[in-house]
Request: fold
Amino acid sequence: MARSRRSVWFKPIVAGVIALAITLVGFLGLSTDTFIGFQQSVSDGLFPGTGANSRIVVIGIDDRSIALVGRWPWSRATHADLIDILVADGAQVIGYDVTFGTPSREEPESDELLADSIAAAGNVVLAESVTFEGRPTDRLALLVATEEFPPIPILAGSATAVGHVNTHPDPDNVVRALAPVVEGPDGALIPSLSFALARQASGQTGPITIRPDAIQTGGILVPTGGLHLLDLNFAEGFLTIPAVEVLEGRAAPGIFEGKIVLVGATALGLGDLVETPLAKGELTPGVYVHANALNTILNGAYIDAEAHSMTLVWVLLLALLIGLVTLYWRPWIAVLVLAALVVGFFAVVFARFDNGTVMNMVYPPLAAPIAFVAGLGVRYFTEVRERKYVTNVFGRYLAKDVVDEVLTSPEGAVATLSGASRPLSVLFADLRGFTAASERAAPTAVVEALNEYLDAMTKAVVEEKGTIDKFMGDCVMAFWGAPRPDPDQVVRSVRAALKMLDYVDTAIATGRAGELKVKGCGVGISVGEAVVGNIGSNERLDYTAIGDTVNTASRVCGVAEGGEIVVTEEMAEALPPGEFRLAPLPPLKVKGKTEVLKVFQVLREGQEPKLFAEGAITDATAEKGAFQATQEAPHKVAGYAPVEPRPAEGAVEAPTDR
Reply:
C-alpha cells in the first residue's frame, strides 16, 4: 500500500517541486531586476494602449514651416502672432514646448511683443529645462534638479505657469516615463509642462501635494509609484497642424475652440527628438511625449506594472500546470497545452493592459517551457529506471531483444497483444518422476530443486528467443512466433528442447537439484495456428496462447518420457531436412480428437530410435501414455530416415505469451 501511495503522489509532488523551484528562481530574478530591460522592451509592443484625446492639438514647427516662415529660431514676434491667432480661435490652453531662456539679441523689442501676447492670452504655459542626476535613492523622494533654466523674467512673469520639459529615458534610451513634478534647486516644486497644462485645463489652482505613490493637485490624482514617475500610456493619432498653416490663416476656423494646444518642434533638424515605444529605431519629436503625458492624465489611462507577488503567482501556476501535463500526458500533447497556455497568458496580458496593468511578459512565459523541459527530464530518468526494471523482470520470460523491441515500440506491442490468430510453435516440458521424488523430500528442498530445474528449462527457451507462457508446477509452457513473428520458430523450438534436456541433465548430475532425483524432462512440441493475446478479466490479464495447437503440444508432451522430445507430424514436416535426426513413433490416440496423431521423436546425440510393433497405437486419452518397446525393427516412414544431427547455433532470447 505504501508503494502504491507513493506512486500516486509521485508525479504531483515532482510537478510541485519543479514549480516551486522555478518560482524561487523567478523571485530572485525579479528581486535583482534581471531581465528588466527585456521586460520593458517586450512590453513596448502593447502600445498604443489608449486613444488620442480630441481636446489635444499639436502645432508642429516642421521643415515646411521653417522653409516658408524663415530659418530657426523664429522672431519672437512670430510666436506672438501665433499665440494671438490661437487665442482668437478659442484655444483653451496653450503650451509652448519652446524655451526662451535668453533675451532676443536681434530684436529686443520682440520680447515685449511676445510678453504682451502671453499676458493678453492669460492661458499660456511656457517651458523650461532642468538638469538632475539619475533616480532618487529614497523611493519616497522627488527627483531633485541641480540646475534650472527658466524663460527670461519678462516672459515667465506673463505666463500663467512654467513647466519643465525634461524626459526621463530608461537605460536603453527609450522614453517611457517622465516626472510630473521635480524639486528645484531652491526646494520649490516644478511641474512638468503636461502636468501644468492639465492643471490649467481643469481649473485646478490649488497646491501640489506629494503622496507616497502619487502626485495630487485638487481633483487630479496622478499615480506615480514610489519613484514619482508617470508611466506614459502612449497613443497615436494626435491632430497635428503645421505652424505655417496657422500663421497664414489656412487652418479651419474654430478648429482650436476649447482645445489644449501644444506648440513644439517637429522638424528633424531642430534636434528635439527622442525614442519612444511606438517608434523604436525612429526618433519622435519631444512635443509628442508631452502630448502623450497630457493625454494619459486627461484620459485617466494610467498604467502600472503588476506587483512582483502576482507575477510569481503566474509563474507558479503555469509551471505547475505544464509540469503536471508533461508528467502525465504524452510530450506532443504537452507541447500543445504549453502553446495554448502561453497564448492564453498573452491574451490575459493584452486584456489587463487595456485596464491599465502591465504584466510581466518574461518570467511567466519563460517558466512554462522550463517546466516542460524539467518534466521531460524527470520522465526520461524515471522511465529509464522503469525500463531497466521492466527489462530485468520480463527478461526472465522473454529474450532481451524482444523486451527491447516491445519497450521501443509500445504502440506496436499493444496492437500485437490485443489478440490474433497466428502460426506458433508451442512447447510443453514436464519433469518426469518429480511428484514421487518430492513426496520423500523436505518442502524447502523441493522448492530449491524445482527452481533449479525450471531455471534450466527457462534458460533454454530464452536462449532460443522463445516466450515463457507459464509455469504449471513442474511443467513449463513456451511458444515461438509471438509477440513478434519468427521465421525460424520451428527450428528454434526444437533447439530449445535439445538444450533443455542437456541443461536438466546437468542440473541432475551437478546441481543441488540432483538431491531430488527425477527421471529427466519430457518435451512435446506442435506447430500450427493459435490465438494469442491478452486473455482474462478486467481485474487481471494474461498474455497467452490458446487453441488446438496448444492442446496438441500438451498431449504429445504427456507421452514423452524423461530425456525425450516428441513432435507432431506438422512439426516434423516444417523442419529443414537434415537439420535434426527424427524417428517415427507409434501414432497417438489423444483426448478430444477422433483421428490419431502421427508423432516423431527428435533424437539427441547418441540416442537411438525406439522400436515398436507395426500398427501399434499409443493410447494417450488419459494424458499418460507410455511407449511399449518391442524387439521388432523400427517402422520406416518415407522422408524421415534418421540423420546425423547438426550442432545447434548460438543462443539468443525471446517473448512470453499463450
Summary: The longest helix spans residues 363-394.
